Amino acid sequence: MALGERLRQLRELANLSQNELAKRANVPRPIISMVESSKQKSMSLENARRIARVLGVTLDLLAGTGEGEDANSA
Predict the structure, then answer these.
(1) Distance CA 30, CA 42 (A)
(2) What is the structure's pLDDT at 65?
(3) Residue 73 domain flag
């Protein structure tokens, strides 16, 4: 699963809009939107850390590099 798909799935599981996630993570909303729509394939490590913290997941889960990549296991 691509980063954008994972991000959208995790955000929706957390019942957050893109705007709310952006505010809580202190990340510009266009970054979240572009990643989710695959217009941007990656993001800075700092932004990924902030988003993962708000979503309550590890960077490995967000990036899809660890065990249990399925967002339903988050």
Answers:
(1) 13
(2) 86
(3) no
